[in-house]
Amino acid sequence: MFNQRLDETISTLASLKDGGIEKQVGQAIDLIGATLISRHKLLIAGNGGSAAQAQHLSAEIVATLHREKRQGYPAVSLTTDTSYLTAWINDFGKDDLDSIFSRQIEALGQVGDVFFGISTSGNSQNIVQAMRRAKELGMKTIGLLGRDGGIIKSECDISIVVPSENTAIIQEAHTLLVHFVCERVVPRLK
């Protein structure tokens, strides 16, 4: 059972190597690096389990990945402001949950910033709406997605898609990709 699951994960990761996402990953690294060097912000959000990935990416950019001493850079996980999140839900209810991140983009985003949206399905409406709002504000957008990329794939400037139907495997690949992006971006920030 475990070996079968391991084989499925290895197969998906191998498909990333053969699937040609290296170009998109490189573009994302270049965009994030240039954004942070220019002291603009990286705003990040993920739906469900991808919210943890958003926090992970933010932590690695603001703090550090490899315990090196360096300046902090502005990366904000939109999923961590519990006061805002609960106020929005309380005031607008479940009928307006899809705009929860787009409101934060509206409040915090500006030209020169990047919105990095994470969705295993590629169809999370709260990420779709945040992508659209970011574009309206003149921000660049990156999607870290799963399956076929869903709706979000066509909504963002750069889309990185893990081609699997298995949510857990998509999230595992997203962890690898978040670490790789940080490993390549951080040396540019010193």
Under the CATH scheme, which architecture would be assigned?
3-Layer(aba) Sandwich
For this structure, the quaternary state is single chain
Query: Which range does the strand content fall in?
Result: 5-15%
Mean pLDDT, to the nearest integer, reads 93
**Largest sheet properties:** 5 strands, parallel
**Total DSSP E strands:** 5
Level-1 CATH class name: Alpha Beta
Structural class, from secondary structure content? alpha/beta
Q: What is the molecular shape?
A: globular
Give, in spatial order, the strands making up the sheet with the most strands.
2-1-3-4-5
- Termini, distance in Å? 45 Å
Order of helices and strands: HHEHEHHEHEHEH
The total number of structural domains is: 1
- What is the CATH fold-level name? Rossmann fold
Unreliable spans are: none
Rounded to an integer in angstroms, the radius of gyration calculated over CA atoms is 16 Å
Number of helices: 8
Binned, the helix content reads 40-55%
The CATH homologous superfamily name equals Glucose-6-phosphate isomerase like protein, domain 1
Secondary structure layout:
Blueprint: H1 2-18, H2 22-37, E1 42-46, H3 50-62, E2 75-77, H4 82-92, H5 100-108, E3 114-119, H6 125-136, E4 140-146, H7 152-155, E5 158-162, H8 167-185
Helix pairs in contact: 1-8, 2-8, 3-8, 5-6
